[in-house]
């Protein structure tokens, strides 16, 4: 019984000692973060789409707070109104940018693209392109399997069943990238 008591006491003392060491190390190496970053992040739309060039809204908020000149930063989902709000909060000049939307420049509908292969597999542009470049002779054009539709968070892209080309709903598109 005595051995069990010593074992339990030793483990308790080691646990408390480890907790104290962790506490003091955490206090010594803690990083103070500007509280404005959280406020700016709340002002952003929270889509975390990456259209601004950062991994998510937190990265953009961090850059907006830390940079003196924010003219090169822009949130395409929030648009000019969100950027004006953020700039006013930070006391900086808001960047002016015209609204953008995704544009399909491919005019190669089914009748214009010669079929050179018969693809019968997973309906994914990435898979079809990796196998042999898709089923048409155009190596640069749209494959029409809808990977862009799946990726769009705003339901702004749809595949036209006749042309098998994507069509963009400009009212829903935020040009998030």
Overall radius of gyration: 27 Å
Strand fraction equals under 5%
**Biggest beta sheet summary:** 2 strands, antiparallel
Series of secondary-structure elements, N-terminal to C-terminal:
HHHHHHEE
Number of helix segments?
A: 6
What is the annotated CATH architecture of the largest domain? Answer: 2-Layer Sandwich
Q: Fraction of residues in helices?
A: 40-55%
Q: Which structural class is indicated by helix and strand composition?
A: mainly alpha
Spatially, the strands of the biggest sheet line up as 1-2
Distance between the termini: 68 Å
What is the CATH C-level name of the largest domain? Answer: Alpha Beta
CATH topological fold name of the largest domain: Alpha-Beta Plaits
InterPro entries: 4Fe-4S_dom, 4Fe4S_Ferredoxin_RnfB, Elect_transpt_cplx_RnfB/RsxB
Domain 4Fe-4S: 32-92
GO molecular function: 4 iron, 4 sulfur cluster binding; electron transfer activity; metal ion binding
Organism: human gut metagenome
Description:
- It comes from human gut metagenome.
- The chain crosses the membrane at residues 6-26.
- This is Electron transport complex, RnfABCDGE type, B subunit.
- Residues 32-92 form the 4Fe-4S domain.
- The protein has 177 residues and is mainly alpha-helical.
- It is 40% helix and 3% strand.
- The protein has helices at residues 2-29, 36-43, 57-66, 79-90, 125-132, 147-151; strands at residues 157-159, 166-168.
- A hairpin with a 6-residue loop joins strand 1 and strand 2.
């Amino acid at each position: 019984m005595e051995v069990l008591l010593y074992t339990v006491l030793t483990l308790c003392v080691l646990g408390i000692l480890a907790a104290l060491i962790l506490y003091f190390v955490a206090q010594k190496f803690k990083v103070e973060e500007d509280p404005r970053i959280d406020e700016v992040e709340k002002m952003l739309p929270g889509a975390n789409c990456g259209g601004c060039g950062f991994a998510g809204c937190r990265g953009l908020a961090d850059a907006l707070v830390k940079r003196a000149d924010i003219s090169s930063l822009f949130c395409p989902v929030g648009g000019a109104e969100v950027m004006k709000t953020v700039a006013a909060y930070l006391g900086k000049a808001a960047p002016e940018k015209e609204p953008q939307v995704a544009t399909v420049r491919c005019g190669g509908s089914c009748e214009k693209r010669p079929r050179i292969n018969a693809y019968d597999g997973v309906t994914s542009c990435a898979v079809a392109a990796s196998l042999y470049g898709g089923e048409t002779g155009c190596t640069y054009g749209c494959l029409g399997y809808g990977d862009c539709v799946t990726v769009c968070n705003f339901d702004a892209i749809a595949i036209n069943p006749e042309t098998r080309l994507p069509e963009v709903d400009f009212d829903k598109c935020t040009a998030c990238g």
